[in-house]
Each structure stands twice: as C-alpha cells, then as structure tokens.
Design brief:
This protein is α/β, with parallel strands linked by helices. Helices cover about 50% and strands about 15% of the residues. The structure holds uridine-diphosphate-N-acetylglucosamine and uridine-5'-diphosphate.
C-alpha cells in the first residue's frame, strides 16, 4: 500500500483530480491511499464545491483556506500549510497537477523535505515566462521524480530541457522518469460526456440553438488586467455576434467579472448588456460546460482546458492568447491563435466556421491515462 497526497486548489485541478481518484477507486483501492489537500485557491461555490458534488471526488481531507492574494503571499501561505501536512502524513509522493500557484507551492514544500513529486501535465510550455503559469510549470517539472506529459510535444520539451528519455530505477529528483501518458482530461471528457447529455438542462435554460451559438471564456490575467486587450476581445465578440446574429454564451470567471466595470469601455459594456445575443452568466459546472462544448458552433477562449475540450468534442476554437502549449490543436488546423487582436479574431471566426471536413485525430491518449499513472506510481515510487 502506498500513500499519496494530492494537491488541488484551482478549478481545473479539481476536475483533473477526479480522473485519478476514479481510477484509484475502481482498480487500486487496495494499493493506493489518497489524501486530498485543497489549498483553497478557488473557493466560490461555483469554482470549487460544485465539482466535488458533481464529479464524485472525495471530500478533501484538509482545506488550507488560503484564498486570493498576491502571488508571493498566496504561494507562501500554501507552502507553509502543505509542508505541515506532508510532515504529518509522511506520504510516498505528492501529486501535483498543471501550473497554478497551488502546483508550485506543492513542488517547493515537498522537494525541500525530499518527498517525491509526481507532476501530471508535465512538459507543457508556452515559452513565455511573463505567464505566471510558465514559471510554475518549469519549476515544478525540475524538482519532480515522475513526470507525466499528456502530449508528445510535452515529452520532447522535457528532453530538450535535459531530462533523459531513457533511465532506470531507482527514480528520484536527481534521476527523474518522464512519460508520455496521455491526458487525464481526455479520460474525464470521455467519462462525463454521456452523463452531461442526460443530466444538464443548460441548453434549454438559456434558449440556445444547437450548433448556433458561440461558447466563450476569458480569464487569463493579461487579458483581464489590460484594458486595451479586454476591449479588443469584447469588441470582437460583440461584432461577430451582431454580424452573424449568433448568441454568445460567456460563463465568466470571477476574476474577469470583477474587472469588467473597471476595464471595459463604458459604451461597449452598455451595448453588450443591452444585446439580446450576449449572455454573460456565472461559471457553470463541468457537466454543463461539456454540454455547452458539445452543442456550440465554435469555442472562443483563452483557457488551456477549454481549447482542448473543444477539440475533444470536435469543435473549432479561436485561441485568445499569443501562444498555446497545446500546439497540436493549431497544427491540426482546428484552432487558430489570434491573441487579443480584434481583426484576427473576426478573421479566424470566418475561416473556422467556413472550413469543411475538419479532422480531429485522437492525440491525447486512450482515455486511460489515470490508470497508467497509477500503475507507474505503484511500480516506481
Ligand atoms: C488561476 C491560475 C490559472 C488558471 C486559473 C483557472 C495561477 C497563477 N493561476 O488563475 O493558471 O488558469 O486559476 O481558473 O495559479 N476569485 C474569486 N473567487 C474564487 C477564485 C478567485 O472571486 O473562488 C477571484 C479573486 O478576485 C482572485 C482572482 O479571481 O483574486 C484570481 O484568482 P487566482 O486564483 O489568483 O487566479 P486565477 O486568475 O483564477
Ligand atoms: N470549466 C467549468 N465551468 C466554467 C468554465 C470552465 O467547468 O464555467 C472547466 C472547463 O470545462 C475545463 C476547466 O474548467 O475543464 C478549465 O478551467 P479554466 O479555464 O479555469 O483554467 P485553465 O484550463 O485555463 O487553466
């Protein structure tokens, strides 16, 4: 029996963790004990609790209730709380997801007291260190013992950074093992896709016509905090919606919701509020999000997870960022990077909605990445 401590904190990590907890529950409950630590980075009901209720994730054993704050303060409080729990629980490993401040805090706390770090979603790179996430993921990868990359590109990035593609046991932070494992979010999307169709009513709730609305999300800090960029994004969405008489459904992250009245031009904000097509709503649950992704015409987003889910559900995607870590999406021609450039966004929408026969090959594994990760942890920790 091994004991692992899983760190979650931000919305996408809570969802990602569901795949591993499900695999443990299904196949490995006699071999793996999972202790879940919620840092409290996300805390609104619709950014946290909703996912536990809906996805069957066990309640956290600990909640650090760290809340929001500057990068330094938030991360430092998490490090201190995680360290204390690790000293008490003495696990065989800490499991970290993605690239948030909760990920970085776990990496620092565990590596300093020599608890092996397992990084799920390793190797992804935007090559833009102005992004807090890029700093977090690089630092986490470089203290990890087992690194599970969802993509071939992620694996190759690690090799370019000096990780050995072949190495032998015993593995440690000084002799790490890297894998191309597939994506635990593909596991989740497959698993919850069926249920989403029957258990949600969001399409009728907002009077959405199937395949005739735009699903948008915006939360990346450089988009929300820079008025010029935020205005360009909303101008583009407004223009596209008016020109094409299409609804835009925008489940809004609280970060963006708090900044709209400060950073959006008052006239544009008023037009958007008055528009019959523009529907700005509270964040939705994961099953609702899947239902929206499956039924929309196109996705327009700066989210990492949502651009990939668009691909899983065979929808084109406009990526509202200067670059992406999920480069395969762009290589397949189903996604276009536009940054926050109004003209490029409108053009990308026109190109993607008039493109016939788009192909969405299976690039993210076989839906069993979480089981593979459990097997490897059992053999190699
Ligand atoms: C964080 C991650 C980002 C990830 C995103 C997922 C970092 C550095 N960033 O960004 O990589 O894509 O989560 O959603 O870790 N807020 C609330 N209620 C909440 C949570 C946040 O109101 O439950 C508001 C607060 O005003 C807070 C702001 O959102 O200051 C930003 O939250 P924070 O967790 O710091 O960063 P995110 O932008 O959510
Ligand atoms: N998501 C959700 N409800 C929402 C918006 C997003 O359940 O209102 C899900 C989405 O389906 C994906 C994850 O949250 O699985 C992505 O999180 P987010 O966009 O916050 O972060 P990122 O992936 O960019 O780090």
């Amino acid at each position: 029996m091994i004991k692992i401590v899983t760190i979650i904190g931000a919305r996408p990590q809570i969802i990602k963790a569901a795949a591993l907890s499900r695999a443990i529950n299904k196949r490995f409950s006699n071999q793996i004990t999972e202790i879940i630590v919620h840092t409290g980075q996300h805390y609104d009901e619709n950014m946290s609790q909703v996912f536990f209720d809906e996805l069957g994730i066990p309640a956290p054993n600990y909640n650090l209730n760290v809340g929001s704050g500057s990068h330094g303060k938030q991360t430092a409080t998490m490090i201190s709380g995680i360290e204390e729990i690790l000293m008490q629980e003495k696990p065989q490993a800490i499991i970290l997801y993605g690239d948030t401040n909760s990920t970085l805090a776990g990496a620092i706390a565990a590596s300093k007291i020599h608890i092996p770090v397992v990084h799920i979603e390793a190797g992804l790179r935007s090559f833009n260190k102005a992004m807090p996430e890029e700093v977090n993921r690089i630092m986490c990868d470089h203290v990890s013992t087992l690194l599970f990359s969802p993509t071939k590109t992620g694996f190759a990035n690690l090799v370019k950074e000096g990780f050995k593609s072949e190495t032998s046991k015993p593995y440690s932070a000084n002799n790490p093992k890297i894998y191309h494992s597939g994506d635990v979010m593909f596991d989740n999307s497959l698993y919850f896709s069926e249920i989403a169709g029957t258990k949600t009513t969001i399409i009728s709730k907002y009077n959405l016509d199937k395949n005739k609305f735009i699903l948008a999300t915006i939360h990346r800090n450089n988009n929300t905090d820079e008025p010029l960029r935020l205005n360009a994004l909303f101008n583009a969405l407004y223009k596209i919606s008016e020109q094409n008489q299409l609804d835009v459904l925008l489940p809004l992250h609280p970060r963006t919701a708090k900044l709209l009245s400060f950073n959006l031009d008052a006239e544009l904000y008023a037009k958007i509020k008055a528009s019959k097509h523009f529907k700005i709503i509270e964040p939705v649950s994961f099953l609702e999000m899947i239902a929206l992704e499956k039924n929309c015409k196109i996705v327009m987003t700066d989210s990492g997870g949502v651009q990939k889910e668009a691909f899983y559900f065979e929808k084109p995607c406009v990526i509202l960022r200067p670059e992406t870590e999920w480069v395969e999406l762009v290589e397949c021609g189903t996604a276009i990077i536009t940054d926050a450039d109004e003209q490029k966004i409108v053009e990308a929408f026109n190109v993607l909605t008039s493109k016939p026969n788009m192909l969405f090959p299976k690039l993210y594994g076989d839906g069993k990445a979480a089981e593979f990760i459990c097997e490897e942890m059992l053999s190699n920790l």
